[in-house]
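ARCHIVE CARD
Drawer: 12
Card no.: 0347
Subject: one protein chain, sequence and derived structure
Cross-reference: see card 0346
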Amino acid sequence: MSATLIDTFKWWAIERANVPAIVASSDSVTYAELDRWAEALAAWLEQQGLQRGDRVAVIGANSLEWAVLAQGVMLAGGILAPVNPRFTVSEASYMVAERYQARFVFHDAERATLAAEVAKDVPGVTVHGLDAVRALRGEAANPARGGAPLRGIGPDDDVVIISTSGSTGRPKGVVYTHRTLCGYMSDTCMARPAAIDRARVLVFAPLCTSAGYVQLTQYLAYGGTVYLEEAFDPKAAIQKIIREKMTTVMGTPIFFERMAACEEFRDADLTSVRYSLVGGAPVSRQLLQAWLDKGVVLRQLYGQTEAGGQATFNSDEGSLASPEKCGRGSPYTRIAIIDEQGRFCPPDTPGEIVIRGPGVMARYWNDPEATAKVVVDGWLRTGDLGKVDAEGSLTMLDRIKDIIISGGLNISAAEVERVIAEVPGVREVAVIAASDAKFGETPLAIISGDASLQVEQVVAHCNEHLSGFKVPRYMVIGTDPLPRLATGKLAKPALRAQYANAHQTLERVR
């Protein structure tokens, strides 16, 4: 793949000049307008001192300005470095100052104070509100650019760094280049060409995640129309699907479950939806049937940030016969299983899922050691347990990585454990997932500590150092040591079994 995303967007700026590219809650922009606006922004960023390869952090909820900033940074040769807008000062400071060493920080109005606090720790950083992006909308594009990048941007230039919550206590940064993104989108297009024709996609995943950013960029690269939601509301989502005749909806099962539970779902005409993907957890047959009764087939996908977000998804036929399966990859993407020695396993043998394909990340940002551990001989070692059948179709069995998926957002159990371990009186802690009707999963902390240790102490410390969605909603504190395996590791399988019904037997602490 020798082209760049810039080539793709320039094509659509002429080919679909007057077609809406992005529709936000109160505003929209066509492909031609998006191109002119992004070019004006790129020229302004260069005037502000942006150099090729500079990281540009953005802290804000989904918005039209956020999306345009992503385009402008790309045109100017910068690297977008999104930060979760729900992060605390300490979390955001780590990402901006230590991980990315950003040159610019953009923020929405609600995060102005957060951005200012974060910027204190970054020498030479420049802070701007997203209203600066808005102000450039009417500016004419720099004619000297001639519609082509001046900096010689090529396929292997970095586009964006997406943070990921893995099994370690600190987020890593997954780097996507023009080559990886273009390859991923071409591969996905070949696997399901009918899904992209005149697509109208509803995006409610945060743009700071691969589920949000890649989906936005992917459907702009397809010449579709992206309907960008600031937050998920099940009733509003159903109404928008009906009113705007959405063709594409993606998300974790909890989003589809909440829509199906709405009274509006019963009489909703959802026949416009021709492509729907569900990931992050298995699709129940009950949920599958509820949407199938509306003429919508929910296809189970498997992926992770390191693989572009979506590595494989089930076929229509497979979704009906075996909804728990995730498909067999795509024309350029291969899915396989390896054992503990790294040897490829025969069909129906459980082992670690590995992926090889154009969407696999270029690397972790400034972390060659971590990159070398997960990308071995061109195969991405996912850290998830699965098996493939004789036809190569994948079934995910369990997460080897200690991840909790709450409302579509990944939470590293190790990160929450690290923060709780800082509380005086805590001797050991294990964080696992508890079922949650609203978010699908939520953190449960099991703590061994001093007899004087109080829940309120732990919650207060977590509230200071963790985003609200990461703070455990359930907590068990005792003085007995936690169970351990023969290897000395905490026996989380036993704890998961013991607290399988925590959402029914324990009181919420927050």
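Annotation on reverse: The CA atoms of residues 423 and 457 lie 8 Å apart. The domain at 403-505 is CATH 3.30.300.30 (GMP Synthetase; Chain A, domain 3).
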